[in-house]
Specification:
The chain is an alpha/beta fold. It is 51% helix and 12% strand. It has 2 domains: 118 residues, no CATH class; 219 residues, Spore Coat Polysaccharide Biosynthesis Protein SpsA, Chain A, CATH 3.90.550. The protein is globular.
């Protein structure tokens, strides 16, 4: 019986992941010869980012194509973030920099405050602690223009995000980005990152759709709301549009980060996202149960290894394709470590109370 269960799990997982692999490989880069570029307003919602904000603004100043405007929304900072933002707004003349205070509290309210001030049809959100390439605005602007030319009702474009450096954390995040990218083949995205997310202002979701009672999810809830309303959400399959985010910054912060990600899953409204979340949780729980069974002598170690190694191999086939696209270097030891960490994340998600930011 247990052999049949393991076989069924591995076959099902292989079918699910193979579809992601197929769809990721079907993604195409936007026609870079297109001269049409959608004007963009960059919205930076930040809190206590006095160290990081100047670095991001310096990167924005040397873009091949400058944004139409930069809107910095200070979310009740207690450091010098607001002073630094105002200093840049007074001294930078190539693009208008508008500095405002959050009309509410939290990142969702801060982004909405920025959206309400935007002068362009499209905005792009990012975080103060990311690094952006010199062709970021150019690439995202071209992707938006190209998608609008081909399809009606485009509501958002998901920009790629990678974690700085190599290693387990970078690989794991790339896998999630790959899943998000693969889901956009028909414009029905399942997730995104507010570190690189372009949204059409007139389609921006309402406060109710954004689940204001949760101090997180300013990205995934926006995407789900747009897809539910019939709008299309695509992926920017251009590495020049990829921004680089910092690592979690230690095991405790990593645990709280995973806890937040897992806590948001129960609020997912798209069936495809729900199904995937349930399946991933089921896999992790099953692996942990069989680990306990192997330790107590309920099953053989060989059966446990078949499940763990089989699931890991299936994931590696897909994720290695994604990490190659992102330019992330990995070793066999990264994959081995990730295969061990994976099921234990379920414990974090189920039993660690999320610490909302």
């Amino acid at each position: 019986m247990i052999e049949f269960l393991i076989s069924a799990i591995l076959i099902t997982h292989a079918l699910i992941v193979s579809r992601w692999w197929r769809d990721f490989n079907r993604l195409e880069k936007t026609n870079t010869d297109s001269s049409k570029i959608e004007p963009l307003s960059v919205i930076i919602a930040c809190k206590n980012e006095a160290i990081n904000l100047p670095i991001l603004l310096e990167h924005l100043m040397v873009q091949k194509i400058l944004p139409e405007e930069i809107i910095i929304v200070d979310d009740n900072s207690t450091d010098k973030t607001l002073d630094i933002a105002r200093s840049y707004s007074l001294n930078f003349i190539k693009t208008k920099i508008t500095v405002i205070s959050n009309s509410g509290t939290g990142k969702k309210a801060a982004i909405r405050s920025g959206v309400e001030r935007a002068k362009t049809d499209w905005i792009i959100t990012t975080d103060a602690d990311v690094k952006v390439p010199s062709k970021w605005i150019l690439s995202m602007g071209k992707v938006i223009a190209e998608r609008q030319r081909l399809y009606e009702g485009v509501g958002a474009i998901i920009g790629p995000v990678k974690i700085e450096g190599d290693g387990v954390e970078s690989i794991e995040y790339a896998a999630m980005m790959g899943w998000a990218a693969a889901s956009t083949i028909k414009g029905r995205a399942v997730m995104a990152s507010a570190a690189n997310l372009a949204l059409r202002v007139k389609f921006y979701p309402s406060k109710e759709q954004m689940r204001t009672e949760i101090n997180s999810g300013d990205d995934v809830f926006a995407v789900h709301a747009l897809v539910h309303s019939g709008k299309l959400v695509f992926w920017a399959h251009d590495i020049e549009a990829c921004v680089t985010a910092n690592k979690a910054g230690g095991i405790i912060k990593w645990i709280h980060q995973r806890s937040r990600w897992g806590a948001k899953a129960k609020y997912y409204t798209l069936k495809s996202a729900k199904r995937t979340s349930i399946w991933i949780a089921f896999l992790g729980i099953t692996e942990l149960i069989l680990l306990i069974a192997a330790i107590t002598g309920g099953i053989t170690i060989a059966l446990l290894i078949i499940l763990w190694a089989g699931r890991a191999l299936i994931d590696i086939i897909f994720t290695s394709r994604v990490t190659k696209w992102f330019g992330i270097h990995s070793t066999i030891w990264n994959w081995v470590l990730l295969s061990f960490i994976y099921p234990f994340q379920i414990i974090v998600i189920l039993f660690v109370k999320p610490k909302w930011r």
